[in-house]
What we know:
The chain is α/β, with parallel strands linked by helices. The chain folds into two domains: 4-184 and 237-270 and 311-321, 3-Layer(aba) Sandwich (Rossmann fold); 203-233 and 271-307 and 327-335, UDP-galactose 4-epimerase, domain 1. Helices cover 39% and strands 17% of the residues. It has a seven-stranded parallel beta sheet, sandwiched between helices. Strand 2 (28-32), helix 2 (41-50) and strand 3 form a beta-alpha-beta unit. The radius of gyration is 19 Å and the shape is globular. The termini are far apart. The mean pLDDT is 96.
Amino acid sequence: xxxxxxxxxxxxxxxxxxxxxxxxxxxxxxxxxxxxxxxxxxxxxxxxxxxxxxxxxxxxxxxxxxxxxxxxxxxxxxxxxxxxxxxxxxxxxxxxxxxxxxxxxxxxxxxxxxxxxxxxxxxxxxxxxxxxxxxxxxxxxxxxxxxxxxxxxxxxxxxxxxxxxxxxxxxxxxxxxxxxxxxxxxxxxxxxxxxxxxxxxxxxxxxxxxxxxxxxxxxxxxxxxxxxxxxxxxxxxxxxxxxxxxxxxxxxxxxxxxxxxxxxxxxxxxxxxxxxxxxxxxxxxxxxxxxxxxxxxxxxxxxxxxxxxxxxxxxxxxxxxxxxxxxxxxxxxxxxxxxxxxx
Length: 343
């Protein structure tokens, strides 16, 4: 019988792609998702991609009774991948308490429940936002963490501190925080992808929605940064590569059988920086589309440039990004073309 892995927020963008990779690797994922920022239709799409029935619970993982219910029903659960969190940076600025309650409380609740049910492996969804505007590039795991630009970013930093404190207290959980850079793209089947509710906060969904006519134009925020073309630079990673990193992290934690507790953080990126203008130009080229875009003022809170040193992931996890920016932007557009514009 395959090991079962609980995936919180497993119907979301990164969670759903990770569910596919878990099944491909021989695990049996269980999804818990309250569908506050995801679509229940994703479940049937996952079943189409994998040819497997997917067990899911439409529940809030902030409730310890919900977690206990799942762990009691599935004693074969050996690990958890924790995605469930609110993630809109702007909203977190206007509604910080909502973010602190949900993002931090859910991790504490999960850790307590894992200890109560003797589940020891946890992969945590973190973010490169913990680095702020780094002093040196590329960013290494030991680079200093800076004051977060938003309450959302601060919740990721605090959650990492909770995991580290838990390790120092010898709480019997082995955890790894994956610090994502900028996930983009979609599954090559075009059956799952990024589908933000309302106006997208991220670049690529705004690009694809503009190309599809859902948005009148794309605004590139700032053209006077100290970069090669004046636009911000990020490390864009294909979501399928990112999903595979979670499976590698889980394998790594499972190999630590002689350790009671463990914690480390690992960058998950390509190691390359691409500017916003490069993303736009590449999207136009690979998809043979002309985008309607303009330059606007800098956006408050935007980091000028950040990209990963991904050597630790290769050394520790045996993982590296394999898909190109071109593949990611082609997959993102193919996914967009399957969607109907919301009313």
